[in-house]
Amino acid sequence: MDTLLGLAQNRQSCRNFDPARPVEREKLTACLEAARLSPSACNSQPWRYIAVDEPERLPQLAACLQETGLNRFTENARAFVVVIEGRQNFTARMGGSLKNQPFSGIDIGLSVAHLILAAADQGLASCVVGWFNERKIKMLLGIPKTRRVRLVVSLGYAAGDDVLRDKDRKSFDEIVTFNHF
Ligand SMILES: Cc1cc2nc3c(=O)[nH]c(=O)nc-3n(C[C@H](O)[C@H](O)[C@H](O)COP(=O)(O)O)c2cc1C
What we know:
Number of strands: 4
Order of helices and strands: HHEHEHHEHEH
CATH architecture: 3-Layer(aba) Sandwich
Radius of gyration: 17 Å
Bound molecules: flavin mononucleotide
Number of domains: 1
């Protein structure tokens, strides 16, 4: 079993999925379970996930992610998790408003982090997708117009050798200080 730091080091966005390898339902469920267990402000859990793994639905959803020629790789993803913002509880809403700190997006980001690290733990490749046609996704999946789709996670197995790329990140010293700004 990998450590969490090891998973963080080895996870990378996959844009080359193997179209011939479906994602096992148990693995998809494990990823969603990790997302479900994520922490949230006032334990509000302001999220709702739609897992899409039916072969006939995959190209329809992928098409919603490919506007203006972006995200073409999603046509080979073998599962998606559509992340919808759910209702916040009263305390999270009040706390966020009093502190001018909208917690929902933070909560959802944490939950998706759980999801993609769990995917890496299952040997699955993933790519978070933030560029999509929200209206078309809502129509396709029957999501009420009033709800917001925040992210879509594409999942599958990496095609061929998924060579680990160098991490393009700010240096540790640039972003971390101890005991002062
Ligand atoms: C909120 C969010 C939205 C993203 N949207 C897209 C996207 O629409 N298309 C894409 O190819 N990658 C997308 N990414 C992936 C990022 O480009 C990627 O995480 C970043 O470049 C770091 O690379 P790595 O994930 O391989 O470590 C998104 C990532 C996040 C967190």
